[in-house]
Task: structure prediction
Amino acid sequence: MSPRDYLTRLAGLAAGTRFDRLTAATVVAARAVTLDTLGAILAGRRLPENARLADLAAERSAIRAATLVGHPGKAEPMLAALANGTAGVALEMDEGNRWGGGHPAIHVLPATLAVAEELAVDGRRFIEALVAGYEVTSRLGGASQVRPNVHSHGTWGTAGAAVAVARLRGHDASAIRTVINLATSMSPANSWLPCFEGATIRNLYPGRSNMQAILATHLLACGYTAVDDAPSDLYGTILGERFDPESVVDGVAADDRVAVYRIERNYFKFHACCLYNHPVLDAVHALVHAEGFSAHDVQRIRVTSLPFVTRMADPSPANMLAAKFSVPYAVAAALVKGTTDVSAFQDEVRDDARVRELATRVEVAADDTMSLRGAPDRPTARVSVVPVAGQKLTRETAVVHGDAANPRPRHELEAKFRALASGALDAARANEIVEMVARLEHLPDIRGLTALLTTGTRSGDGTANASGA
Result:
């Protein structure tokens, strides 16, 4: 297959993602991803640096057309996308896709929401754009074998989000192909090191992708040109060790349709930390539930999981973000505190002597046969607990709870959203958002939703009456 063929077909898939072609399951998935991602943004906005970035976005904007989620102001769409995307990843509660693209939604939704609000599109057009952008992000990511220290955040999201924005602007397949190449050429080079050190510049990666995605469509309008095949160049020779164009369009039919969109195959997080912790934590919770032991009963713990976890073996993370990338810490916090929600990674828990001491007794090992992309019944983690008294306890887990292959019920997703939104919005407003997203495809104007996402008051016509408007 020639590079031109695969990109033309990918652009055709994106252009052909129309609401009347989507199944009910795809629409349900788009709604769930929208609600979950908005919750992650609302919660992340409460961190001081993210609140100040939103302040800056509002202050520096001449055109204030897009809502700063969880903030009283509005901003120019590129800056709103930057601030919202950055906030949404800060607490590690955003969804992801184990089939490729890392965390597609947080790279695509902020730009999609900002431009959809600016253009006052309806819910159906928003869903079309979100599904198309998510698909491109995941397919490009799944076709890439990136270098070991390249972080997935920011890597493919610029292209996917640019596709979503191009759809909102009414571009055809030819223009979308150009936008993919323009946006890919702006993909940032990001490493895993900030995660392990807890440097919050890492949180900017998705925000920057969203901002540059909107910029890519402006560059197209200005007449800028792109290379013919940017993904093969960037992901195959610079950020990656291999890029497989053929797999990008695997399963795409001649009429630009797919049987199942990637947004339907995602996972939702129910532990507030890096995904590579999740199989381990599922096993820990299962052991505690089955055996009824506590942290006081533990002599030592051995964790065996995906090869990457050996890079997450520091038992003494320096701060909240680093703690989210530490397997020993996450296991210790789960056992001592009995939770792995946002609170488990805050400084007061990290400073708890019981947590810190237990973390030093967690050993981390790799099993090369374990993979997140394996069959649903293939193990992804094995946890063995050696108690102070008694026999060793062992539990294996496969697909994580919250994955499409091991789903959580809708009411749990809604409860997660309410919990994340609780620090920014009152319960009545959160419930209103849940109800509105549940009928997203029926919204005549997406601004009905964005008006609920501001922390300012609302006027009688449902539009935001915020200090930055």
The radius of gyration is 22 Å.
